[in-house]
TrEMBL record:
Pfam families: UPAR_LY6 (PF00021). Residues 1-18 form the signal peptide. The keyword Isomerase does not apply. GO terms for cellular component: external side of plasma membrane; protein-containing complex. Residues 19-100 form the UPAR/Ly6 domain. This is Lymphocyte antigen 6 complex locus protein G6c. Keywords: Signal. The lineage of its organism: Eukaryota, Metazoa, Chordata, Craniata, Vertebrata. The keyword Signal applies. SUPFAM superfamilies: Snake toxin-like (SSF57302).
Amino acid sequence: MKGRLLFALSSLFCWVSADIRCHSCYKVPVLGCVDRQSCLLERGQKCLTTNVYLGKMWVFSNLRCGTPEEPCREVFNQTSHKLGLTYNTTCCNKDNCNSPAPRPTPAIALVLLTSLAGLGLWLLH
């Protein structure tokens, strides 16, 4: 009886842990995640987040599921000398562990767009 219960619990644990989902999107300043989706993680793979910087300024992030063709490999301060970009990639394997930060509030985007419109009008004057 104990053996059956242990088997049932271990089967349930394997079934639950098999359906790990990751966030999948390109995250850019002001807009947040563009084309936000989720992907089902394949067995043996990990969720990944790649942050791209120009100097110390964050340019964008790529969140996705690792695949057998492109598995997640953690790298820190990998630099592309041609473009001057720095890449940091982190891996994780829990449900939605590569969660994007909350979307920026509309008020911040409105202030930014209004400022840019004002600057444009001033330059045209």
